[in-house]
Amino acid sequence: MVPVRLTGPRLAIREFHQTPEDADALHAVFGDPEATRFLPFEPRDRETCADQIALFLEEAEKEEREVYRLAVTRLADADDPARAVPIGSAALGLAPNRAASLGYALRRDVWGLGYAGEVVGLLCGLAFGTLGLHRLEARTDVGNTASVRVLTRAGFRLEGRVRHDFPRHDGWRDAYQYALLADDVRPGAGPGSAAGPAVRGRAVQGGITPPRSGGEPDVGRLAFLTGFRGRKDPSDEPEPRPTRGTESRP
């Protein structure tokens, strides 16, 4: 595997490492009841988070990679992002017809600093630039107003409301579906402009396989801020663990 690295003004996105530090960092998000409030699973234990990192790396080793689940770090935290402790995760799930769904998760204490918009911009750069995709989809719980603002500022357009998108302990949840097309993006345009988000300040290194033009993907939809719906998530196993999801709110 040749690692993927995306670099923005304040953040870097890299592959996860199968280390105690990265497992602790992922658990700091998925084990937090507030961070999972709008997600299709209950808070996860550390063992489940460590299992997920193993899955992330397994997916990264595939000859035709269809899912990118990456660690988000701050440039200020270390000279090399590889040594920085993650503050969250970012994900891109490829689909047929040059499409993908994006998602991310950020630790609760870094919400409100504008990091979510930067992560989305970097994922857009990976999708529309390096991977040559045409369409990005994103879903968010209808009550997640912070995520709605992030998507709108990034240039995503509301396509509709998905009724009963996923179940929670307190009942079914609806979601808004947004999308951004390559045609909507003008290089260098500022976030929230009619031409779409800025995709500047990025660097991508290797390990990227262009998506296939047709056929069924090996994994399911990756919903923005609502979770990975793939069949190969370790939590899909028939045991009392959270059922699905890898992404969180900003």
Account of the protein in words:
The chain has one domain (5-236): Gcn5-related N-acetyltransferase (GNAT) (Aminopeptidase, 3-Layer(aba) Sandwich). Helices cover 20% and strands 26% of the residues. The protein is built from 4 helices and 10 strands. β7 and β8 (171-181) form a beta hairpin. α1 crosses α2. The longest helix has 16 residues, at 115-130.
Q: How many domains make up the 3D coordinates?
A: 1
Number of helices: 4
Using DSSP, what is the number of strands? Answer: 10
What gap, in angstroms, lies between the N and C termini?
A: 29 Å
Low-confidence stretches: 190-250
**Spatial sequence of strands, sheet with the most strands:** 1-2-3-4-5-6-8-7
Order of secondary-structure elements: EEHHEEEHEHEEEE
Principal-axes shape call: globular
CATH level-two architecture: 3-Layer(aba) Sandwich
Tell me, rounded to a whole number, the average pLDDT: 78
Report the sheet-strand fraction. 25-35%
> Percent range for helical residues?
10-25%
Give the CATH superfamily: Gcn5-related N-acetyltransferase (GNAT)
Provide a short characterization of the protein structure.
This protein is 20% helix and 26% strand.
